[in-house]
Amino acid sequence: MDDLRDKYIDLIARAEDEAALEDLRVQAVGKKGQISLQMRELGKMTPEERQVAGPKLNALKDEINAALSAKKAALSDAALDARLKTEWLDVTLPARPQRQGSIHPISQVTEEVSAIFADMGFSVAEGPQIESDWYNFDALNIPSHHPARAEMDTFYTHRDEGDNRPPHVLRTHTSPVQIRSMQAQGAPIRVIAPGRVYRADYDQTHTPMFHQIEGLAIDRDISMANLKWCLEEFAAAFFEVDHIEVRFRASHFPFTEPSAEIDFRCSWEGGTLKLGEGDDWLEAGGSGMVHPKVLEAAGVDPNEWQGFAFGLGIDRLAMLKYGIPDLRAFFESDLRWLKHYGFAALDVPTLHGGLSR
Question: What stretches of 87-175 show up as alpha helix (H) in DSSP?
Protein backbone atom coordinates (compact mmCIF):
# COMPACT_ATOMS: atom_id res chain seq x y z
CA MET A 1 0.00 0.00 0.00
CA ASP A 2 2.85 2.40 0.73
CA ASP A 3 4.29 1.74 -2.72
CA LEU A 4 0.87 2.45 -4.33
CA ARG A 5 0.47 5.63 -2.33
CA ASP A 6 3.94 6.97 -3.22
CA LYS A 7 3.47 6.02 -6.87
CA TYR A 8 0.15 7.78 -7.41
CA ILE A 9 0.83 10.81 -5.23
CA ASP A 10 3.96 11.44 -7.32
CA LEU A 11 2.17 10.89 -10.65
CA ILE A 12 -0.74 13.15 -9.63
CA ALA A 13 1.67 15.93 -8.62
CA ARG A 14 3.37 15.73 -12.05
CA ALA A 15 0.13 15.63 -14.12
CA GLU A 16 0.15 18.46 -16.65
CA ASP A 17 -3.52 18.60 -17.66
CA GLU A 18 -6.97 17.32 -16.71
CA ALA A 19 -6.88 14.54 -19.33
CA ALA A 20 -3.73 13.06 -17.77
CA LEU A 21 -5.29 13.44 -14.34
CA GLU A 22 -8.39 11.53 -15.44
CA ASP A 23 -6.22 8.68 -16.73
CA LEU A 24 -4.54 8.46 -13.33
CA ARG A 25 -7.91 8.41 -11.58
CA VAL A 26 -9.03 5.46 -13.71
CA GLN A 27 -5.75 3.62 -13.08
CA ALA A 28 -5.92 4.12 -9.34
CA VAL A 29 -9.55 4.21 -8.15
CA GLY A 30 -11.56 3.34 -11.26
CA LYS A 31 -13.65 0.16 -11.33
CA LYS A 32 -10.63 -1.79 -12.60
CA GLY A 33 -8.00 0.39 -10.91
CA GLN A 34 -5.23 -0.98 -8.73
CA ILE A 35 -6.75 0.14 -5.45
CA SER A 36 -10.20 -1.13 -6.45
CA LEU A 37 -8.70 -4.52 -7.30
CA GLN A 38 -6.96 -4.59 -3.90
CA MET A 39 -10.30 -3.94 -2.20
CA ARG A 40 -11.85 -6.90 -4.00
CA GLU A 41 -9.24 -9.13 -2.37
CA LEU A 42 -10.69 -8.32 1.06
CA GLY A 43 -13.31 -11.03 0.55
CA LYS A 44 -10.59 -13.69 0.40
CA MET A 45 -9.02 -12.62 3.70
CA THR A 46 -9.77 -13.86 7.19
CA PRO A 47 -11.82 -11.56 9.44
CA GLU A 48 -8.70 -10.62 11.37
CA GLU A 49 -6.83 -9.69 8.18
CA ARG A 50 -9.81 -7.64 6.89
CA GLN A 51 -9.90 -5.62 10.12
CA VAL A 52 -6.33 -4.53 9.43
CA ALA A 53 -6.32 -4.22 5.63
CA GLY A 54 -9.83 -2.70 5.16
CA PRO A 55 -9.26 0.60 7.03
CA LYS A 56 -5.84 1.00 5.38
CA LEU A 57 -7.28 0.58 1.89
CA ASN A 58 -10.14 3.00 2.59
CA ALA A 59 -7.68 5.56 3.95
CA LEU A 60 -5.50 5.09 0.87
CA LYS A 61 -8.48 5.53 -1.47
CA ASP A 62 -9.58 8.70 0.36
CA GLU A 63 -6.04 10.13 0.19
CA ILE A 64 -5.75 9.46 -3.54
CA ASN A 65 -9.19 11.01 -4.20
CA ALA A 66 -8.25 14.08 -2.14
CA ALA A 67 -5.00 14.44 -4.09
CA LEU A 68 -6.90 14.13 -7.39
CA SER A 69 -9.43 16.83 -6.35
CA ALA A 70 -6.71 19.22 -5.18
CA LYS A 71 -4.71 18.76 -8.40
CA LYS A 72 -7.84 19.25 -10.55
CA ALA A 73 -8.63 22.51 -8.75
CA ALA A 74 -5.04 23.67 -9.22
CA LEU A 75 -5.13 22.87 -12.95
CA SER A 76 -8.47 24.71 -13.32
CA ASP A 77 -7.09 27.78 -11.57
CA ALA A 78 -4.02 27.75 -13.78
CA ALA A 79 -6.14 27.43 -16.92
CA LEU A 80 -8.33 30.33 -15.79
CA ASP A 81 -5.29 32.51 -15.09
CA ALA A 82 -3.89 31.75 -18.54
CA ARG A 83 -7.25 32.53 -20.16
CA LEU A 84 -7.61 35.82 -18.29
CA LYS A 85 -4.16 36.89 -19.43
CA THR A 86 -5.12 36.34 -23.08
CA GLU A 87 -8.54 38.00 -22.69
CA TRP A 88 -7.32 41.12 -20.92
CA LEU A 89 -9.34 44.23 -21.69
CA ASP A 90 -8.90 47.85 -20.65
CA VAL A 91 -12.35 48.73 -19.28
CA THR A 92 -11.42 52.42 -19.22
CA LEU A 93 -11.47 52.59 -23.03
CA PRO A 94 -14.20 54.93 -24.34
CA ALA A 95 -17.47 53.38 -25.50
CA ARG A 96 -18.38 53.22 -29.17
CA PRO A 97 -21.70 55.08 -29.54
CA GLN A 98 -22.47 53.51 -32.93
CA ARG A 99 -22.67 50.10 -31.25
CA GLN A 100 -25.08 51.07 -28.49
CA GLY A 101 -28.49 49.43 -28.71
CA SER A 102 -31.85 51.18 -28.63
CA ILE A 103 -35.01 50.54 -26.64
CA HIS A 104 -37.97 49.89 -28.95
CA PRO A 105 -40.78 52.50 -28.72
CA ILE A 106 -43.24 49.75 -27.69
CA SER A 107 -41.03 48.77 -24.75
CA GLN A 108 -40.52 52.41 -23.83
CA VAL A 109 -44.21 53.27 -23.90
CA THR A 110 -45.07 50.15 -21.90
CA GLU A 111 -42.66 51.28 -19.20
CA GLU A 112 -44.04 54.83 -19.31
CA VAL A 113 -47.63 53.65 -18.91
CA SER A 114 -46.64 51.24 -16.12
CA ALA A 115 -44.83 54.02 -14.25
CA ILE A 116 -47.88 56.29 -14.39
CA PHE A 117 -50.35 53.69 -13.15
CA ALA A 118 -47.90 52.43 -10.51
CA ASP A 119 -48.00 55.95 -9.08
CA MET A 120 -51.80 55.53 -8.78
CA GLY A 121 -51.41 52.27 -6.87
CA PHE A 122 -51.83 49.77 -9.72
CA SER A 123 -49.62 46.68 -9.87
CA VAL A 124 -48.64 44.91 -13.09
CA ALA A 125 -50.27 41.53 -13.87
CA GLU A 126 -49.43 39.08 -16.65
CA GLY A 127 -51.10 36.09 -18.26
CA PRO A 128 -50.51 33.53 -21.03
CA GLN A 129 -50.76 34.55 -24.67
CA ILE A 130 -52.38 31.24 -25.61
CA GLU A 131 -55.69 31.22 -23.76
CA SER A 132 -58.55 28.81 -23.35
CA ASP A 133 -61.83 29.69 -24.99
CA TRP A 134 -63.32 30.08 -21.52
CA TYR A 135 -60.86 32.74 -20.30
CA ASN A 136 -60.82 34.63 -23.59
CA PHE A 137 -64.60 34.66 -24.22
CA ASP A 138 -66.94 32.84 -21.81
CA ALA A 139 -65.64 34.32 -18.56
CA LEU A 140 -65.88 37.79 -20.14
CA ASN A 141 -69.59 37.36 -20.94
CA ILE A 142 -68.96 37.13 -24.70
CA PRO A 143 -71.79 34.99 -26.18
CA SER A 144 -71.17 32.09 -28.54
CA HIS A 145 -72.65 33.99 -31.53
CA HIS A 146 -70.46 37.08 -31.03
CA PRO A 147 -68.50 38.09 -34.20
CA ALA A 148 -65.23 38.17 -32.25
CA ARG A 149 -65.39 34.36 -32.00
CA ALA A 150 -65.38 33.93 -35.78
CA GLU A 151 -62.25 32.42 -37.32
CA MET A 152 -61.99 35.41 -39.66
CA ASP A 153 -61.19 37.55 -36.58
CA THR A 154 -59.55 35.15 -34.12
CA PHE A 155 -56.57 32.79 -34.39
CA TYR A 156 -57.55 29.34 -33.12
CA THR A 157 -54.97 26.65 -32.39
CA HIS A 158 -55.01 23.49 -34.51
CA ARG A 159 -57.22 20.59 -33.42
CA ASP A 160 -57.16 17.08 -34.81
CA GLU A 161 -60.26 15.83 -36.58
CA GLY A 162 -62.74 14.49 -34.06
CA ASP A 163 -61.20 16.44 -31.14
CA ASN A 164 -64.23 17.93 -29.38
CA ARG A 165 -62.36 19.57 -26.50
CA PRO A 166 -62.83 23.35 -26.05
CA PRO A 167 -60.43 25.19 -28.38
CA HIS A 168 -57.52 27.43 -27.44
CA VAL A 169 -56.90 30.81 -29.05
CA LEU A 170 -54.18 33.39 -29.36
CA ARG A 171 -55.70 35.89 -26.94
CA THR A 172 -57.61 38.65 -28.71
CA HIS A 173 -57.27 41.08 -25.79
CA THR A 174 -55.55 41.31 -22.41
CA SER A 175 -58.93 41.08 -20.64
CA PRO A 176 -58.40 37.40 -19.63
CA VAL A 177 -55.76 38.69 -17.22
CA GLN A 178 -58.63 40.39 -15.35
CA ILE A 179 -60.19 37.01 -14.65
CA ARG A 180 -56.91 35.34 -13.67
CA SER A 181 -55.96 38.23 -11.37
CA MET A 182 -59.31 38.26 -9.57
CA GLN A 183 -59.23 34.48 -9.21
CA ALA A 184 -55.75 34.68 -7.69
CA GLN A 185 -56.15 37.79 -5.50
CA GLY A 186 -59.86 38.35 -5.01
CA ALA A 187 -61.07 41.84 -4.15
CA PRO A 188 -60.19 44.64 -3.64
CA ILE A 189 -57.71 44.77 -6.50
CA ARG A 190 -55.99 47.30 -8.76
CA VAL A 191 -53.95 45.96 -11.66
CA ILE A 192 -52.83 46.82 -15.16
CA ALA A 193 -52.06 44.11 -17.72
CA PRO A 194 -49.82 45.11 -20.64
CA GLY A 195 -49.05 42.54 -23.30
CA ARG A 196 -49.30 41.16 -26.83
CA VAL A 197 -52.67 40.35 -28.40
CA TYR A 198 -53.60 38.83 -31.76
CA ARG A 199 -56.28 39.47 -34.36
CA ALA A 200 -56.62 38.53 -38.02
CA ASP A 201 -56.13 41.99 -39.53
CA TYR A 202 -53.31 43.78 -41.41
CA ASP A 203 -53.09 47.28 -42.87
CA GLN A 204 -51.53 50.67 -42.07
CA THR A 205 -53.29 50.89 -38.71
CA HIS A 206 -53.76 47.17 -37.89
CA THR A 207 -51.37 44.24 -37.53
CA PRO A 208 -52.01 40.57 -36.66
CA MET A 209 -50.07 41.07 -33.43
CA PHE A 210 -50.19 44.29 -31.43
CA HIS A 211 -50.04 45.48 -27.82
CA GLN A 212 -52.72 46.48 -25.34
CA ILE A 213 -52.83 47.54 -21.74
CA GLU A 214 -55.78 46.54 -19.60
CA GLY A 215 -56.73 48.32 -16.37
CA LEU A 216 -58.90 46.92 -13.58
CA ALA A 217 -59.94 48.39 -10.24
CA ILE A 218 -62.39 46.60 -7.92
CA ASP A 219 -63.58 47.89 -4.55
CA ARG A 220 -66.82 48.53 -2.66
CA ASP A 221 -67.65 52.04 -3.87
CA ILE A 222 -65.83 52.58 -7.20
CA SER A 223 -67.76 54.49 -9.87
CA MET A 224 -67.44 55.88 -13.40
CA ALA A 225 -66.19 59.11 -11.81
CA ASN A 226 -63.12 57.25 -10.51
CA LEU A 227 -62.57 55.81 -13.99
CA LYS A 228 -62.73 59.24 -15.61
CA TRP A 229 -60.29 60.72 -13.09
CA CYS A 230 -57.80 57.89 -13.65
CA LEU A 231 -57.91 58.33 -17.42
CA GLU A 232 -57.55 62.12 -17.20
CA GLU A 233 -54.56 61.83 -14.87
CA PHE A 234 -52.99 59.17 -17.08
CA ALA A 235 -53.46 61.12 -20.32
CA ALA A 236 -52.03 64.34 -18.87
CA ALA A 237 -49.00 62.52 -17.45
CA PHE A 238 -48.37 60.40 -20.55
CA PHE A 239 -48.60 63.23 -23.09
CA GLU A 240 -46.84 65.56 -20.62
CA VAL A 241 -49.39 68.38 -20.64
CA ASP A 242 -51.17 70.10 -17.76
CA HIS A 243 -54.62 68.68 -18.44
CA ILE A 244 -56.51 66.64 -21.03
CA GLU A 245 -60.28 66.53 -21.10
CA VAL A 246 -61.70 63.01 -21.37
CA ARG A 247 -65.08 62.35 -22.98
CA PHE A 248 -67.18 59.22 -22.61
CA ARG A 249 -69.35 58.06 -25.49
CA ALA A 250 -71.97 55.40 -24.81
CA SER A 251 -71.01 52.06 -26.32
CA HIS A 252 -71.47 48.34 -25.74
CA PHE A 253 -68.96 45.73 -24.62
CA PRO A 254 -70.10 42.34 -23.29
CA PHE A 255 -67.77 42.57 -20.28
CA THR A 256 -68.77 46.03 -19.02
CA GLU A 257 -72.09 47.65 -18.13
CA PRO A 258 -72.40 50.57 -18.64
CA SER A 259 -69.77 50.78 -21.38
CA ALA A 260 -68.09 53.83 -22.88
CA GLU A 261 -65.62 54.71 -25.62
CA ILE A 262 -62.79 56.96 -24.41
CA ASP A 263 -62.03 60.18 -26.32
CA PHE A 264 -59.28 62.75 -25.61
CA ARG A 265 -59.78 66.42 -26.54
CA CYS A 266 -57.31 67.42 -29.24
CA SER A 267 -56.53 69.74 -32.14
CA TRP A 268 -55.43 68.81 -35.68
CA GLU A 269 -54.64 72.40 -36.68
CA GLY A 270 -52.06 72.52 -39.46
CA GLY A 271 -52.00 68.75 -39.64
CA THR A 272 -50.28 68.52 -36.24
CA LEU A 273 -51.88 66.68 -33.35
CA LYS A 274 -52.02 68.60 -30.09
CA LEU A 275 -53.59 66.93 -27.06
CA GLY A 276 -55.51 68.87 -24.43
CA GLU A 277 -56.70 71.72 -26.67
CA GLY A 278 -58.91 72.38 -29.68
CA ASP A 279 -62.40 71.23 -30.68
CA ASP A 280 -61.65 67.72 -31.99
CA TRP A 281 -61.71 64.40 -30.20
CA LEU A 282 -59.32 61.47 -30.49
CA GLU A 283 -60.62 57.96 -29.88
CA ALA A 284 -58.34 56.21 -27.37
CA GLY A 285 -59.96 52.95 -26.22
CA GLY A 286 -62.87 51.33 -24.42
CA SER A 287 -63.96 51.27 -20.79
CA GLY A 288 -66.84 50.76 -18.40
CA MET A 289 -68.01 49.23 -15.14
CA VAL A 290 -67.16 45.52 -14.88
CA HIS A 291 -70.22 43.40 -15.71
CA PRO A 292 -71.60 41.41 -12.74
CA LYS A 293 -71.32 38.19 -14.74
CA VAL A 294 -67.58 38.81 -15.22
CA LEU A 295 -67.17 39.27 -11.47
CA GLU A 296 -69.07 36.05 -10.83
CA ALA A 297 -66.90 34.13 -13.31
CA ALA A 298 -63.81 35.35 -11.45
CA GLY A 299 -65.20 34.32 -8.06
CA VAL A 300 -65.99 37.86 -6.85
CA ASP A 301 -69.41 38.62 -5.32
CA PRO A 302 -71.04 41.39 -7.47
CA ASN A 303 -73.40 42.24 -4.61
CA GLU A 304 -70.45 43.30 -2.48
CA TRP A 305 -67.87 44.51 -5.00
CA GLN A 306 -67.86 46.67 -8.12
CA GLY A 307 -65.28 48.38 -10.24
CA PHE A 308 -64.13 49.62 -13.61
CA ALA A 309 -62.01 48.30 -16.46
CA PHE A 310 -60.45 49.97 -19.49
CA GLY A 311 -58.32 48.99 -22.47
CA LEU A 312 -55.83 51.14 -24.39
CA GLY A 313 -53.65 50.35 -27.41
CA ILE A 314 -49.95 50.71 -26.57
CA ASP A 315 -48.98 50.86 -30.26
CA ARG A 316 -51.51 53.64 -30.88
CA LEU A 317 -50.27 55.59 -27.87
CA ALA A 318 -46.71 55.31 -29.17
CA MET A 319 -47.75 56.49 -32.63
CA LEU A 320 -49.58 59.49 -31.21
CA LYS A 321 -46.90 60.59 -28.76
CA TYR A 322 -43.84 60.11 -30.97
CA GLY A 323 -45.30 60.89 -34.41
CA ILE A 324 -44.91 57.42 -35.92
CA PRO A 325 -47.08 57.28 -39.07
CA ASP A 326 -47.28 53.55 -39.88
CA LEU A 327 -48.02 50.77 -37.39
CA ARG A 328 -46.37 48.12 -39.60
CA ALA A 329 -42.94 49.72 -39.08
CA PHE A 330 -43.03 48.57 -35.43
CA PHE A 331 -42.52 44.96 -36.58
CA GLU A 332 -40.20 45.29 -39.59
CA SER A 333 -36.89 45.21 -37.65
CA ASP A 334 -35.42 48.10 -39.63
CA LEU A 335 -32.35 49.25 -37.69
CA ARG A 336 -32.48 52.69 -39.32
CA TRP A 337 -36.05 53.14 -38.09
CA LEU A 338 -35.13 51.91 -34.62
CA LYS A 339 -32.12 54.22 -34.46
CA HIS A 340 -34.39 57.15 -35.30
CA TYR A 341 -37.32 56.30 -32.99
CA GLY A 342 -35.51 54.23 -30.36
CA PHE A 343 -34.55 55.28 -26.83
CA ALA A 344 -31.29 55.12 -24.92
CA ALA A 345 -30.91 51.90 -22.94
CA LEU A 346 -30.57 53.78 -19.65
CA ASP A 347 -33.50 56.15 -20.31
CA VAL A 348 -35.74 54.60 -17.64
CA PRO A 349 -39.08 56.46 -17.49
CA THR A 350 -40.12 57.86 -14.10
CA LEU A 351 -42.66 60.50 -13.18
CA HIS A 352 -40.17 62.59 -11.20
CA GLY A 353 -37.37 62.25 -13.75
CA GLY A 354 -39.46 62.56 -16.91
CA LEU A 355 -41.12 59.88 -19.00
CA SER A 356 -39.42 60.53 -22.32
CA ARG A 357 -36.15 62.02 -23.49
Answer: 105-119, 133-136
Tens of pLDDT along 155-173? 888 877 777 777 889 999 9
**What amino acid occupies position 41?**
E
pLDDT tens for each residue of 85-112 = 888 777 787 776 666 778 889 999 999 9
Alpha-carbon distance 9 to 13, whole Å?
6
172, 136 Cβ separation under 8 angstroms: yes
Phi, psi (5° rounding) for residue 74?
-65, -40
For 27-54, b/e burial (b = at least 16 CB within 10 A) is: ebbeeebebeebbeeeeeeeeeeeeebe
Write out the DSSP string of 260-284: EEEEEEEE-GGG--EET-SSEEEEE
Please state, in angstroms and rounded to a whole number, the distance separating the CA atoms of residues 229 and 233: 6
Residue 119 domain-assigned (yes or no): yes
pLDDT level of residue 196 (50, 70, 90 thresholds): very high
DSSP 329: G
**195 & 308 share domain:** yes
Of 147, 209, 199, 150, the closest CA to residue 172 belongs to 199
Domain range enclosing 56: 2-86
In a domain, 57, yes or no: yes
Residue 281 in contact with residue 266, Cβ under 8 Å? Answer: yes
SS3 of 95, please? coil
pLDDT of residue 175 exceeding 70: yes
Query: Does 250 fall in a domain?
Result: yes
Between the CA atoms of 155, 160, 162 and 163, what dihedral angle is there, to the nearest 10 degrees?
-70
Which is it for the CA torsion 315, 321, 322, 325, positive or negative? positive
With both helix axes pointing from N to C terminus, report the angle between 47-86 and 2-14 in degrees, rounded to the nearest 10: 10
Confidence of residue 356 (pLDDT cuts 50, 70, 90): low
Tell me the mean pLDDT in the region 192-210: 81
**Residue 152 buriedness (CB in 10 A; 0-12 / 13-18 / 19+):** exposed
Average pLDDT over residues 308-314: 93
Instruction: Tell me what pLDDT residue 15 has.
Output: 85
Nearest CA among 105, 98, 99 for reference residue 355: 105
